[in-house]
Amino acid sequence: VKLVAGDIKDSFDAECGDGIVDIDDFIRVLRGFSNNSGKLLQQSVDINEDGVVNVIDLAYIKRNFNSKND
Residues near 33 by Cβ (< 8 Å), separated by ≥ 6? Predict the structure, then answer.
């Protein structure tokens, strides 16, 4: 199985991690920008795993939007 960057899998939201990069994943990354979001949430949406949730993570969503895992 080839995973597509941006399909967020975590225990916070059953709708994400469904095998396709979609609006649910985009919203999860946007929530990660919030100062109120917990560390586990931020780690789960840090797509490139650089320690911060920022526009680079959103760029992965944009690039792979509507892509499906093989």
Answer: 53, 54
Q: pLDDT tens for residues 16-56?
A: 677 889 998 899 888 888 655 677 777 788 888 888 888 99
Q: Are 42 and 32 in contact (CB under 8 A)?
A: yes
C-alpha span between 18 and 53 (Å, rounded) = 21
Report the alpha-carbon distance of residue 21 to residue 51 in Å, rounded.
21
Question: How many Cα atoms sit within 13 Å of 40 on the Cβ side?
Answer: 5
pTM for this entry: 0.77
Tokens representing 56 are 């680079």
- Give the 3-state secondary structure of residue 4: coil
Contacts of 51 (CB under 8 A, 6+ apart): none
